[in-house]
Amino acid sequence: IRAALGARSLVLIGLMGAGKSSVGKRLAGALGLPFTDADHEIEVAAGESIQEIFADHGEAYFRDGERKVIARLLTSGPQVLATGGGAFMDSETRNRVAESGLSIWLRAELPVLMKRVRRRSHRPLLATGDARETMKRLMDERYPVYAQADLVVDTKDAPHDTVVGEIVGML
Ligand code: S3P
User: Could you identify which of 16, 78, 97, 113 might form a hypothetical disulfide with 101, taking C-beta atoms 3.0 to 4.6 angstroms apart as the criterion?
Assistant: First the structure.
């Protein structure tokens, strides 16, 4: 699999709570590739938490940083890259991923997502208002775009290792 990927990275996309980071870490381990978490790299680059970036500078500033950080990460060799839920909505990022990566959408249904986002510390989008309504709106907006991914995995409510096995089977 690694040989077939060449210099391309596996890029995990999907909504908050879909399991991108957890599945990503295990997938990287299974393939012997480095794992990178884009949200974490954005925090390192900014010297602030995601929550602070949103609070101090707003979402547009975060999206700018996110675009730049992902562009940089995609040039640094084959890896499994977990992106934040909004990253793939950016057309420049989509083009870059199409050029130097293989995108994998971890598709999940609303109840599963809601169960998994109880920790909202790095999720300012869910911090105010009705989180369930927000998540539904994001599903409507984003699923048609996520559907452009190279691979789609229906995660159901399966354990992360099962999802990893499915992905490895599709590669
Ligand atoms: C966001 C998802 C978050 C984080 C930020 C915005 C989004 O990442 O990037 O809060 O727009 O869906 P996760 O998908 O890892 O929670």
Answer: 97
Domain ranges, residue 67:
7-161
142 lines ligand 1 (CB under 6 A): no
Q: Is residue 168 part of a domain?
A: no
pLDDT score at 74: 96
Chain segment 57-104, per-residue pLDDT in tens: 999 999 999 999 999 999 998 999 999 999 999 999 999 999 999 999
Please report, rounded to a whole number, the percentage of residues in the chain having pLDDT higher than 70: 98
Q: Considering only CA atoms, which of 111, 87, 114 is closest in space to residue 101?
A: 87
Structure tokens, 29? 């381990």
Which pLDDT value is given to residue 84? 97
Query: Residue 170: its pLDDT value, please?
Result: 94
CATH of the domain at 57: 3.40.50.300
Is the beta carbon of 85 within 6 A of some atom in ligand 1? yes
Cα atoms in the 13 Å half-sphere on the side-chain side of 167: 32
121, pLDDT greater than 70: no
In a domain, 166, yes or no: no
Task: Give CA angle at 83 (96, 6), nearest 5°.
Answer: 50
Q: Are the C-beta atoms of 153 and 26 separated by less than 8 Å?
A: no
Strand ranges in the chain using DSSP code E only, listed in sequence order: 9-13, 35-37, 80-82, 101-107, 151-154
Q: Is the CB of 53 under 6 A from ligand 1?
A: no
